[in-house]
Write a structure and sequence with these properties.
Helix content: 55-70%
Number of helices: 3
Oligomer: single chain
Largest sheet: 2 strands, antiparallel
Low-confidence stretches: none
Radius of gyration: 13 Å
Order of helices and strands: HHHEE
Structural class: mainly alpha
């Protein structure tokens, strides 16, 4: 299997891992925290630059899907699982 063929599988793995991390942190989690945890837990195979790029894409996708909520701006931006939010 070529690297190009592995990309969709890796993206799916990262998406599941990111969603799980956000669910585990009901108070919210930042983009850098997500990347650090993915790297520490060896969930992602590849360069850190690829991890940053893929995580950013996954977060954008999850927000667009409505699965994840984004609060704040810039470095203070946190991501929350939409299922954790009651009538806020």
């Amino acid at each position: 299997m070529t690297d190009h063929e592995k990309l969709p599988q890796e993206l799916c793995r990262v998406k599941k891992a990111v969603k799980a991390l956000i669910k585990q942190n009901p108070g919210g989690i930042t983009y850098p925290e997500i990347c650090n945890r993915l790297q520490q837990e060896s969930i992602f195979m590849g360069t850190y630059r690829n991890l940053l790029s893929m995580t950013s894409s996954v977060l954008r996708l999850l927000v667009e899907e409505g699965t994840v909520l984004c609060r704040g701006e810039g470095a203070a931006k946190i991501f929350l699982y939409a299922g954790n939010q009651s009538s806020r």
